[in-house]
């Protein structure tokens, strides 16, 4: 015997479903905004509450590029190291200045925090759809609880990078190939993340069968091509702008501390105690990514969590910025999803966020104010 619904009942059920679908991402956004509002007090406490004070260090370069572009040399950095800074974030700052008439510093901070807020909403909606409400909240808690999460309130690229990274994962997973191409290429003009993303995307496309004959691989090939092109897109464009093919690579050398290892890998090869820490770090992240993430985790996310740590070890300078770089491993928080059914899960999540605030205040106080050569975000 069939069940009949009146028009009113059908409409009510549809509205209820839409409310449930939006309740989780909105909850994620509310948690994010409240958490960042509390963290904002740390900036005031450290004397860096103004937009100008939040536009120091690397942020100074983005603001400068937004106003002046990429000239042959600058008064603040005659070594040409500004080509290490990608162009999309400065372009958005410039567009915001033209639209609002505001100074570039507050616009830059607003762009960063705004992108991060949107990213959290998109992440919550997507993970709720492919996983569960607990998955969405676990990822957001992991993102916020990391000590460097206040970086979203600086004129840095983390907010834009997280947004484009989440969109890239989502569109690749949903097989929205055109949008995936756009987001992957945009990310390649935002941060140096194209290489690990390329590896994650390629593995996703292969393991899901999208590159195999008979599976209509044209769209998948386009996505993979965009990921490959993205690896060299900015280095090539920078070379064209500067008239020097190697300017992107030489610009990174300008930031290398004199006499110190050029990468975490080199530091490990020089110092056995660092090597032990590196091996433990890679083993832990690999086990989390391959074994402990939920079965439904999209392959592109799983392999990002496996590849990105290796990329950091091989390609990152030994600087305090590593704390900030590790923020992008937030999907590892999905490993906690099986614990969500426990009665004490909410209390543990709250405790994690409280401890995260302690770490956030330490990070802001220690690294954001202008200080010595070894204290910067």
**Radius of gyration based on Cα positions:** 22 Å
Largest sheet: none
Count of strand segments: 0
Please state the overall shape, judged from the principal axes of the Cα atoms. globular
Terminal residue distance: 65 Å
Percent strand equals under 5%
| Percent in helix | 55-70%
Assembly type: single chain
Summarize the helix and strand pattern as letters: HHHHHHHHHHHHHHH
Total number of domains? 1
Class by SSE composition: mainly alpha
- Mean pLDDT, all residues: 89
Which residues form runs of ≥5 with pLDDT under 50?
1-7
Helix segment tally: 15
Report what the structure shows.
The chain has 377 residues and is mainly α. It has one domain. The protein has 15 helices and no strands. The protein has helices at 7-45, 58-68, 88-100, 104-130, 133-145, 158-174, 177-188, 194-207, 218-242, 247-253, 264-270, 272-292, 299-315, 321-325, 345-367. Helix 2 (58-68) crosses helix 3, helix 5 packs parallel to helix 15 (345-367) and helix 11 packs across helix 12. The protein is globular, with a radius of gyration of 22 Å. The chain starts with 6 loop residues before the first helix and ends in a 10-residue tail after the last helix. Residues 1-7 have low confidence and may be disordered.
Keyword list:
mainly alpha, 377 residues, disordered N terminus, globular, 15 helices
Summarize the structure.
By secondary structure, this protein is mostly helical. The chain starts with 6 loop residues before the first helix and ends in a 10-residue tail after the last helix.
How would you summarize the topology of this molecule?
Blueprint: H1 7-45, H2 58-68, H3 88-100, H4 104-130, H5 133-145, H6 158-174, H7 177-188, H8 194-207, H9 218-242, H10 247-253, H11 264-270, H12 272-292, H13 299-315, H14 321-325, H15 345-367
